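Q: I'm teaching a short session on how sequence maps to structure, and I want students to see two examples side by side rather than one. Could you give me a first protein with its sequence written out and its structure tokens following it? Keep the formatting plain so it prints cleanly on a handout.
A: Of course. Example one:
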Amino acid sequence: MCFQAAARATTNAKFDRAMKEIGELDVKVLEWLSDKPHFQWSRSHFKDYSKCDILLNNLCESFNSSILEVKEKPILTMLEWIREYLTVKMQQNRDRAAKMWSDKKICPKIKKIVDRNVDKASDCILIKANNWNYDISCYDGARYTVDLVAHTCSCRKWELSCIPCKNGMSAICAQELDLLDFLHSCYQVQTYTKVYEPRMMPMDGAYKEEDQCKVVKDNKHQGVCYNSICPALCILMDAYVFAPSPPPELQPSVKIRAPAPMAPMPHAFVSNPTPSASMKPSASALFIKDGKKFVKVSDLAGVLSSSSNATMQTKGEKKPT
């Protein structure tokens, strides 16, 4: 109870009084609390620019509980779920403001706080200094000063939340002034609507069915082996691996080097047994273009294998089985 009093205190006097009571109960607790920055857990040391007096992180916990079921999923799946969740949530808030709050000026939860402070204002005794400054006395013996021009009260509740406290409400109601003139604009339905006005636009999937079919249909180099030829064969050939005259975007940018110096062999591509310049490549057989002749790779297997074994034996490596 003493800790809650210290955390909820809005003035230094109330905070010091609560801390003194904590010290009388347990000195170690007082020392532990004194080591913590007071502005992190007590309203009495909060700045007033945030327009918020919330002590707990319920806002974060509420969102955390909403995404609890997808936290263990892959990162892309989780992010996509969060995107869809926020899209639906923002649209629901827009619909709520447009359909249910269209005739309201203040958001419902703020309206409840205002009504509660108006009810508590009956406990205050006013002494009017001028049209804008009041001396407020409460039944518990506390006394505060209210400035209607600066929207402040010495209890600091008005400054922290920008919602008139019971002392401010008593002065406002005494002059029958409009409450909207003393309430921050962030609590109005109009501002709420503007906050959720930006849309999260829908997104296409990773693949578009029509576009994907078009790409497959127009792919003239389909079946060409660009980088899936046996790595060992590519190393022995010491050559770029691509089809005859492929488009620039499909040409590889990295050249694979052979472990031992060998005569570079020309380009490799997939073609039919009798390739020609006008033929479209297919996956029937793999040929190596040697000058003006096309040599089947299977015919070169023995030559390449013997050359590779000789090189490995020269380096003292174990002959592969």
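Q: Perfect. Now a second example for contrast.
A: Example two:
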Amino acid sequence: FADRTQGRQSLWAALSVATISEPALRAIWSGWLDGRLARHRDTDNMPTLTIARLAADGVWLADMLEKEAGLKRYPQELEAQLLAIASVSTKTG
């Protein structure tokens, strides 16, 4: 959310999108993510945090694929709502 228009122009964005179609990259990403989720399981294992993460991932992917339509369809204000969901989850989890 920090700089949504710049993000899709970066080389990291190209690499990230390539993980969708390249099995080897997908395996590397999946292993990395599994490691992070395991490392933070004690503090970040609430379903609402998973929902917030997946929602943020969806907004990111829409930005990559839909360019300006994604920015209009999923406004910047969603960031505050996702952060609020995550914040409540960590306080009550």
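Q: What should students look for in example two?
A: Point them to this: The chain has a mean pLDDT of 82. Also worth mentioning: Helices lie at 4-7, 11-21, 23-39, 41-44, 47-66, 68-73, 78-92.
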